[in-house]
Amino acid sequence: MSAEDYRINAEVRRHLTSRWVDVSRLQIGTTNGVVYLMGTFEPTVDDALRRVGQQQIDDPVKRLIKLLLIVDRELRRLRNVRDVVHNFRNIKRRGGTWRVSTPRGVQTVSDDDARGDTKKRRKKVAVQTNKTEELREEDGSDTTPQSE
What is the pLDDT of residues 20-37, one digit of tens each? Predict the structure, then answer.
């Protein structure tokens, strides 16, 4: 392992701790800029999302996946990180579905549910934008410059 990989490991540990992830249940390794996270992904507190500035979610499974998605996105932005590979005991992703092992059994959540309403909001804005453009064309109030 190079000195840069050791630096990335330290940065990943610091980052996970600042996001209230229990690093004592994780094994973290880096090889040539690829970060490997293995073990059990769990927050140290129940309101970890709220503490990192996100809206709190009532469902603990969705809350766990949302925290994982946030952490994954932020780890990929770290300097010299080429990829992040997860191999968790309690969370698996296959296709577009997350499988989370909880004390109550295995629960599944789709990608759309895990991400929240962001995709739905984007689609709604796109539809509204298209309708506005169509209305402008019908009214003749289209403000785009026309060539002669």
Answer: 899 999 999 999 999 999
